[in-house]
Design a protein that fits this description.
Helix content: over 70%
Distance between the termini: 14 Å
Radius of gyration: 23 Å
Structural class: mainly alpha
Number of strands: 2
């Protein structure tokens, strides 16, 4: 026979143990789901009808890595950055310039460039994250525009408007084989980015970032180091985006500051994350597939016109007005309505709600005993 105190102690520990088991189960499901999705995407090089369609797949995966990296910051904290194209461009140019000026291995240059971008991102993030809302958005836009002007003007170092040609890491491969190799490289990096997002999502670090997203002032009042958490998320996000930029440089081999440091590119990536759903593991990937395919469609059918910008703006307006939480959330709410459960909010449970839920479970357990 257990004493009353021992019974209550074990009962008090049960919810925590259940949460741990639930979290562990979710991690395993995430890993399994990521493996399945990556396996499905890996079939595209064998199904693509021509090299152009294979190259389009590379572009979509590049967008997916970029958007997933952005989501580590924007999705968890709620800080909408339109300046991540700066890290994309720095990763691309850093990789190219290291290869050209030192002759080092392409992928070693990529790794060093990504680390260098993090070194730059820390002081930038420290300054930018002092402000919130529209002010933060303006600061991030300014970062992109300043770097675009610098890389355009510094012709002797960056090539300026004439661009920068980056030596290919696999010079002996024909173009179709080159696309295929980089498709699988991007796919591997995407898998790692998705795993990183899933790990953050089920960690105390991620819980702190979600607290910032829901109510930053309340999180600070509870003793959560919001400034440190935001800065770390900003740096990790910049690293992933820099890797996507460096891989783009190795794949495409021709860099232009107008494209590498483009606010429109940042806006498109933000749209990808918002379209799929920033609070879902595969939300940015879904958005990247939809937007990436649409951009290639407009390029094929309308050429180098600005029609894709009009379509992007219209789609952004539709998402903000009718699907502010993304397609996946809208689909989930639709299923719940069909099942008769009604619409539910996707906001995280507050501390009061969690406490009330735990007390209700404990009380029902006492009544059952």
């Amino acid at each position: 026979m257990l004493s009353v105190s021992e019974t209550r102690t074990r009962a008090g520990r049960t919810p925590a143990a259940e949460r741990d088991r639930t979290s562990s189960g979710r991690r395993r499901r995430n890993i399994l789901t990521i493996a399945v999705v990556i396996a499905i995407l890996a079939t595209w090089p064998f199904l693509a009808p021509n090299p152009y369609m294979l190259s389009a797949g590379v572009i979509v995966l590049n967008f997916a890595v970029f958007a997933t990296g952005w989501n580590i910051m924007g999705g968890f904290t709620g800080y909408i950055s339109l300046g991540h194209a700066a890290f994309f461009g720095l990763g691309a140019y850093g990789t190219g310039l290291l290869i050209i000026n030192t002759g080092m291995n392409s992928f070693l240059a990529l790794a060093l460039a990504a680390v260098g971008v993090v070194v730059i991102a820390v002081p930038v993030g420290y300054a930018a994250l002092k402000v919130r809302g529209a002010s933060f958005v303006i600061v991030t836009i300014a970062l992109v525009l300043v770097l675009q002007l610098v890389f355009q003007s510094w012709r002797s170092f960056t090539g300026g408007s004439e661009g920068l040609f980056v030596p290919r890491p696999f010079p002996d491969l024909l173009r179709p084989q080159h696309h295929q190799v980089f498709y699988f490289i991007f796919l591997g990096v995407l898998a790692l980015a998705l795993l990183a997002w899933a790990v953050v999502n089920h960690s105390r670090f991620g819980a702190g970032l979600k607290a910032v997203r829901e109510d930053e002032d309340k999180a600070e009042s509870l003793g959560i180091p919001t400034g440190t958490l935001k800065l770390v998320a900003f740096a990790v996000s910049a690293f992933v985006v820099a890797v996507s930029g460096g891989l783009y440089a190795l794949w495409f081999a021709d860099l232009d500051p107008i494209f590498q440091f483009d606010v429109v590119l940042s806006a498109q990536v933000v749209l990808m994350a918002l379209l799929g759903g920033t609070r879902y593991l595969f939300g940015p990937l879904l958005g990247a597939v939809v937007i990436g395919v649409a951009l290639e469609y407009f390029l094929l059918n309308y050429g180098e016109t600005q029609f894709h910008l009009i379509a992007t703006g219209l789609l952004l307006g539709v998402v903000v007005l009718f699907l502010p939480d993304g397609v996946l959330t809208g689909a989930q709410q639709l299923v719940q309505r069909v099942r008769g459960k009604g619409a539910t909010s996707i906001r995280e449970m507050t501390a009061e709600e969690l406490r009330a839920e735990q007390e209700r479970k404990e009380k029902s357990g006492d009544d059952h005993d």
